[in-house]
Amino acid sequence: MWQTMIVALIVAAALLHFSTRYLPAGARRAIVRGLVRCGLNEEKMAKVFKVAPGCGSGCGSCGSCDTPAPPPDAPGGGDSKQRVILMQVRR
Fold first, then answer.
1. Is residue 84 part of a domain?
2. Would 75 be classed as within a structural domain?
3. In this predicted model, which residue has the larger pLDDT, 52 or 32?
4. Could you write out the DSSP letters of every residue in the chain?
């Protein structure tokens, strides 16, 4: 019986480590939102899962919407219809 409980704790710890490190950010935010709905503290869960608290709620606190537009003279930005592909030649 003790062996089963110890193995269950090890598997739970491994799952938590995998969830906090290797899952995509969108999946981690979804997990945090689900845990917050269950009554857990959002700030602590966001810190554990390494995401910004309140991200995805539309409140603007995560800063994901504040990405600046590329300048018009930059390749691929602005009103330019041309597509520029930068290549590095190795010799």
1. no
2. no
3. 32
4. -HHHHHHHHHHHHHHHHHHHHTS-HHHHHHHHHHHHHTT--HHHHHHHTT--TTTTSSSS-S-TT-PPPPPTTSTT-TT------------
